[in-house]
Design brief:
249 residues, alpha/beta, Rossmann fold, eight-stranded mixed beta sheet, two-stranded antiparallel sheet, 12 strands, 37% helix, globular, binds NADP nicotinamide-adenine-dinucleotide phosphate
Length: 249
């Protein structure tokens, strides 16, 4: 019983700490500039991953020229006249620079599976992206993080707040708070997109978005296809500019 109480205290304290450490948006939509000019060419980070794949196919379908920075080009299994693949690593600043050249926007769906130890992959990778964006005059960044940090702490629902995050993902989520803070401290035109639990289901094309998305009790979900749809939409909308916005079905 004592152990259980200690564990619950740890889980709640972690959730509070993630809330304080992550970005806290004003609870209003950001820029209010709608109808931004679409970028001609976009860099996708994480294009071999679940969300990244959806971003890649949808971006090409919508006629964007796409550069994908990937560690293993064979992992992409896609050829398209609008797609250029750059082999590299987000932790290698030179390869990020090579991929950034000539781009007008960045979509980042970076993630990894090194859950069980301190990690800075998300934050250091994002630091390289931000540095390279400044160097190449690229202003627009849309980056996927997660509900459960900053002013969305606890909003992944009890299962995540009391089990998944404290047991499996404490280091990972802590790094996400650093990632969000780096982005929010930048002078760039950014949108942080915080989805609920991800699935590979078909996109519905309809989802909830905003500061109040998520539940303190139930796990809220959304498909990667819908997250990609929303992220691409942020390239031409100023509604959530310089805010962290939750998204779920
Ligand atoms: N799973 C969920 O329920 C959930 C919920 C909310 C938020 N999220 C977040 O959403 C994001 C996307 O998740 P996902 O499951 O769709 O993606 P994912 O399948 O985990 O893909 C991650 C991508 O990041 C790439 N990557 C990792 N390290 C890299 C490096 N050093 N350099 C370049 N690329 C690197 C991976 O490339 P490789 O193919 O080379 O590994 C892969 O393309 C993650 O940040 C995740 O935490 C997930």
């Amino acid at each position: 019983m004592t152990l259980l109480l200690l564990f619950l205290a740890y889980a709640v304290a972690l959730s509070v700490a993630l809330g304080r450490a992550g970005h806290r948006s004003q609870s209003r939509a950001g820029g209010g500039t709608s109808g931004l000019t679409p970028p001609a060419s976009i860099l996708i980070i994480g294009a071999t991953g679940g969300t990244g794949r959806q971003l890649l196919t949808k971006a090409l379908e919508r006629g964007y020229r796409v550069i994908a920075l990937v560690r293993d080009p064979l992992g992409l299994r896609l050829e398209h006249p609008g797609l250029t693949v750059v082999r590299g690593d987000v932790l290698d600043a030179d390869s990020v620079d090579r991929a950034m050249r000539g781009q007008q926007a960045v979509l980042c769906a970076l993630g990894h599976k090194r859950y069980f130890g301190p990690t800075r992959i998300l934050s250091e990778g994002t630091r390289n992206i931000l540095r390279s964006m400044r160097a190449h005059g690229v202003r627009r960044l849309v980056c996927e993080t997660s509900l459960g940090i900053g002013d969305s702490a606890g909003r992944m629902g009890l299962y995540y707040t009391l089990f998944v995050i404290p047991v499996i993902l404490p280091f990972y989520y802590w790094d996400k708070t650093r990632q969000e803070r780096l982005i929010a401290a930048s002078e760039l035109d950014w949108v942080v997109v915080r989805p609920g639990a991800l699935s590979n289901a078909q996109g519905r094309g309809r989802y909830r978005e905003g500061a109040g998305v998520g539940s303190y009790v139930w796990t809220v979900r959304i498909s990667r296809a819908d997250v990609a749809d929303f992220m691409l939409g942020q390239l031409t909308s100023g509604t959530w500019l310089r805010t962290a916005v939750g998204i779920s079905w």
